[in-house]
Amino acid sequence: MTDRSIFDEMNGSDGQCRDAYQVLQEWLKSAPPQLLEHRREEAELLFRKVGITFAVYGNAEAEERLIPFDIIPRILAGHEWARLTRGLEQRVKALNLFLQDIYGPGEILRAGIIPPELVFQNPYYRPQMNGLALRGGIYVQVAGIDVVRVDGDDFYVLEDNLRTPSGVSYMLENREVMLRLFPDLMAMQRIRPIENYVDELLGTLKSVAPATSSAQPTVVLLTPGSLNSAYYEHSFLADRMGVELVEGRDLFVRDEVVFMRTTEGPKRVDVIYSRIDDDFLDPLVFRPDSALGVPGLIAAYRAGNVAIANAPGTGVADDKAMYSYVPDIVRFYMGEEPILKNVPTWRCREKEALSYVADNLHELVVKEVNGSGGYGMLVGPHATQEAREHFRRLVLASPDNYIAQPTLALSTSPVFTESGLAPRHVDLRPFVLTGRDGVRIVPGGLTRVALKPGSLVVNSSQGGGTKDTWVLSE
């Protein structure tokens, strides 16, 4: 049975197949179940052959896992994508202006829009960035904005991922697998391509190279190493962009200039696409015990001799407490109403909100301000009384560390199961690139799906999977 109160991406709220899915529906009607099962098995073999995995920290039994992939695509009409991209561009522009402001004049703080303690006491705030003029004023070159749909018209932003957003390799691999397995189906529709993402990423990174760089700046991707949960993606992107994948030990700083060790001698580095946390970037500035970073890197950065994407200190704009202020941030800097809505949010740091949350845990989702990956959260309606009581104690003991939101009826999309097609909840992570030459958004993104019936948790580390996202040309 389909719950008609939940919007279904394929069948809407009224059970009638939506226009964007008409071709897929007709194809599915004519496809024998054994064909779909065969394609599912082929997809799994392809993923295993390529080695598309992710790591789960603290899980001794399965350090490397194959990310589950569903063969039924999620489809967006062209007009839906157009509205979504307008909202994403507006939001990311405002967040870049916010970061430029808080590390500069601080106008939004003086205006009383944002409580200063949310900035200055934020664990991701980096005073070393104060007064530093970044080329183009761009702090966030790569953003992954998580959006959900709860009805047919509007997308809501669930999270802003501005530090080291991941998942784009799965987006690209998902499309390659679908092209190999369903060429006939894909040829029946005008699906906008995403293959140019890597070129767009490289162009974005080169655009923020220091003014002193050569016409062909040297870009590297800095990884923590092969034990990192997203190492597959790091190596994938470096390979596709044709840039070196480096660890901290491969780089050194001399006279406030970053160099890469090569077999032909030192080579100057102009842009570092960093996939390591700020704390580990430079042991002379942040954690002195870091073996992952590069001593002197921040001095070279402040001297304007190297660009780091994303900039250190961007995390102050993407924690879950700051998230609740993003609509105000959009209004303050853009002079416009937000195109994309936020999910209503209670800030437990505020007395009235704390009281409401403590009394209504049974119907709320409670999240740690700095949590990620589906950890550090309570889904009240699906939790035990014991778990709710445990969270109540945590929230009351440290209210600044939590926010709460209503339990959303996330839209569903059909997935292929052993018993046929079945609805599962989904979200979407489009990737927004911002360079000196503007904002670029490839048409699609990573659709994550909660493969467990009724589950709202789509994170792969929590049992979720992915599917290809098709955006149709109008």
UniProtKB/TrEMBL annotation:
Segments traversing the membrane: none
Domain Circularly permuted ATP-grasp type, chain residue ranges per copy: 73-450
Any single Pfam family the record assigns to this protein: CP_ATPgrasp_2
Protein name: Circularly permuted ATP-grasp type 2 domain-containing protein
Annotated source species: Microvirga aerophila
